[in-house]
Protein 1
Amino acid sequence: MLVLVYGAAFTAAYFIERRHFPPDQRLDVDRRALLSASSIAAVTFLMSNVSFVSSNTPFSAQFGPEIFYIRTLVDLAGYVALYAQQGQRLELQRAVEVEAMNRMLHSQHDHYLHSKRNIDIVHRKYHDLKHFVTAIRAEEDPDAKASYLDQLEESIQGYGAQVETGNPVLDTILTSKTSQCTELGITLTCVVDGAALSFMDPMGLSALFGNALDNAIESTATLPDPENRLVRVAVYTQNSLVLVRFENYHLGDLEFDDGIPRTTKGDALNHGYGLRNMRQVVESYGGSLTVHTEAGWFVVRALIPVPER
């Protein structure tokens, strides 16, 4: 009877609790939660067994059936308290994750707007300098000065570079990231059909591409060999799906939680949500996002179905 009762109780507890403990996700318990759970378990155990120590307390009993009822009720109350505590902790954790994702989403959108303004300013300066150089060339100047002007014109060519994908939002993001990669010595290769993502809103695009490229640039910028600082972006259609692929050269091993690499930064509360935010954006359009490593490359792939017009 003892084996049957305990077996049934723990089996029921397992099926009730297992949804709170995904096998591919690490359980993070802080000291406060551990102390609270231990206190509930200890108090429940003491109150449940007080009848075996003294029969003169309000929670004591003298006869077997009474002891059984008291122990059952007290143990059940303790289990409910632990279950409620775990549920509250998970809800708080989800709320923190959602808040962090929303902060990152709005931050990426603000970054896109800021980058767009900066690129417009740079383009205006670029055209002004071209006219200025043309005016100086019309004057009678020595050959040395003409050589300096050639160098000046060559030095500002990079400011006029504009990535054209057929999507103005992607043009702004990729142009900004291309300039950033140039400063860091990173080679960014883009083969992007921006028109294929015309159904996505600007905030979703900025979150998807901004997070992916920020992660790739941050990862490759620290590589000691400049030849390994490579980032590739591809967007193309395949049947009724749009395939978005981000790749960057990567060294070392990664640990995954729920298919997402675990952040290597110390402040896990404010970091590590970029890929989760990307997954949320992709899934909001009915797509799927996968992350894996292959032959020294870190690959993020998103499959998004093209909505019917």
Note: Helices lie at 2-17, 31-48, 64-137, 143-155, 168-184, 202-220, 274-284.
Protein 2
Amino acid sequence: MTDQASIQRVDTHLLRIPLRRPWGADVTEICVITVTVQASDGLVGHGFSWTPSIGSTAVQAMIDDDLTPFLLGRPATPSVWDEAWAHLHEAGGGGVTTIALAGVDLALWDLRARTAETSVTDLLGRRHDKLAAYASGVNLHYSHDDLVAQVQRWIDAGYSAVKIKVGGPDLAEDLDRVAAVRDTLGPGRRLFIDANQRWDLDTASRAIPALSAYDIGWIEEPLRADDLAGYIELRQRIDVPIALGENLHTLYRFRDFLDAGVIDIAQPNIIRVGGITPFLRIAELVRERGAQLAPHLLPELSAQLAFALPQTCWVEDVEDAGFAALGALTEPTGLHVTEGWAAGGPSLGLGMIFKN
């Protein structure tokens, strides 16, 4: 691909991929919108957008109806991201707009790396050969016994850190579940908990100090993700590290929350923030502000970008939810998680081509 190559064609396809372990009664599948960008010189890049349950057809329509007409004829490089975001901004600064943008952005990075005959990681500059991974589960609906069995599987697989869901209607039940998990883990492994925005300020203020008795490493999204005022007040009431960011969609929102001092562990989701281009900017902002980074989900994508960052960060590995494990890819990415460490990755591009 030459610098003069332009975007000639953008194609999308909506996939519904069944989950091997449903994330709840209403989340039995995830949705992927594959995006293929063809440049004027004939070279092709492969990307995707993703949403667990809501908005997949809206994302596909945004790409087909609004992004594609705007992008045709423009340079086939990730540098078009800012113009494209500005073009979509009237429909919202983040959310469907940034999720749609991610598919094109990933395809353009994949195209750029394939042109250079290398991986995206090595195109950016690999800094880490391996990074610590933590085992994660969407398991609030699991029975007590099933939850403990899941944690035991993670221990047997060699993970040194795990994350479980909390936020049920009964705090006593949450405490029983966390106590059982801590007892199973023993004192030498780390335990993170995720409330998935289920609490209000007063509930979080009661629950978190009680749960902290079990040596929790962070509390994730205790409040609604966009409730900055609530997080500012909660920060004054608790001393447990706060993790959030999977539902913040722009660099500006991360800046607001970081500057307010309410993020200890930032968790941008690469798709939800709009792709690799904004993710790299957010990662740099997080580093400058002195917070930790732990990208949200999608380890086959998150890890290969994390390998190229100057800071070290966690890789989240949700049980049986990787695209390769779900049988959704034409070939494995080369990423592997062994004894709690993520390593490897593709040799060309992003290495993620979905079965259509």
Note: The longest strand covers residues 7-18.
Protein 3
Amino acid sequence: MRKPNIIIIMTDDLGYGDIGCDGGTHIRTPNLDGMAAEGVRFTDFYASANVCTPSRAGLLTGRYAIRSGLAHEVIQPADTTGLPRSEVTIAQALKPHYATALIGKWHLGHVAPHWPPTLYGFDRFYGVPYSHDMRPLALFEGAGEDVAAHDDKVDMARLTQRFFEQTLAFVEANRDAPFFILLNLTAPHIPLRPNPDDLTGSPAGDYGEVVEEIDTNIGRLLARLKDLGLDEDTLVMFTSDNGPWFEGSSGPFRDRKGGAAWEGGYRVPFIARQPGRIPAGRVEHGLASNLDLLPTALGLAGLEPSTIELDGRDISGLLTGEASSPHDQIALFNNNHVVAVRTARWKLVARSYYRTFDAPLDGLPLLFDMQADPGETYSVARNYPEVLADMRRRLADARAFYEPMAATFPPHIAPASAADHPD
């Protein structure tokens, strides 16, 4: 039996409430809605961090970024750090059985020994080294050690178009053998540059335009897979690296990207589609995380993970509805701190921000019933003292296990220059 092709599409700063099937009302996403109708939509899927670099490190390795020294903030153009070469990525774990490509944004190190991305198991790279609001910015392309920058200025308005074109080209070139593609889009991260070739007249303005362009191209990708006879052989997964930033919707959830422990920074869309493998029209409420994509890819490919300890779990049974979530809890990080713990019903919040104050909240306490109050508006700690005690124990255990790992790595953030921008 052929190993499944795997395509992961990760947007940049897309909110839970930005797509129709998750309750969005301002942005038209018929292809994503159709993808959910033909597959499974998760309601409780988490990015492994509330900002870019650590979330991407988590997805690619199946391990919280604190294990690799990348949990604190995001890599800036002046930084020299990156993903340690000792980490095993999805692409490396799938070799030599898969042809592999990274298309889009890397943001896990842009100087040696952390560059180029082809050192991490990708046969081909086409994309940008970090966020497209950072300078200097160039578009890189190549294979093996032969990755070079394009001479032309980056066409911001057509980045999404170019990334999907490269994805389709890789699919067609590798149609006869299993392939893995990580398509890391730069949209809808600012700056917002709608593509003049694909304007939709979105009622949500420029933000809506770039999201609707993503949706249009997903429709084109799925149609091409059908044309090539690869539809049932290909698992396509869609998610976001964290919640929305200055624009975009967190849906019913509190706060947004970078907002310490609140749901809006972490709870993101997740849709998976593979006709004949994933039953159509499922809505899954079990806990899951982008850390799970590496062990899930390996499980579906019939491959064993390396001996490196993973934080993610194989959720292939959750995709098909044949098993419940393998997670008893999920820890949420802000930089190197565990700031919340989520179980199926409960969430304990222990940190937030107010203006310039990084506010520890352990003493309040803030215990939320996520089934009754997903917006995290009322603490029910008084009502459930035994639950509170259990959640406090979980938080303490997670902090004791993970936070000492930060001391293994020196601080990696260089002083920002005037040309640098936060991710």
Note: The first strand starts at residue 5 and ends at 11.
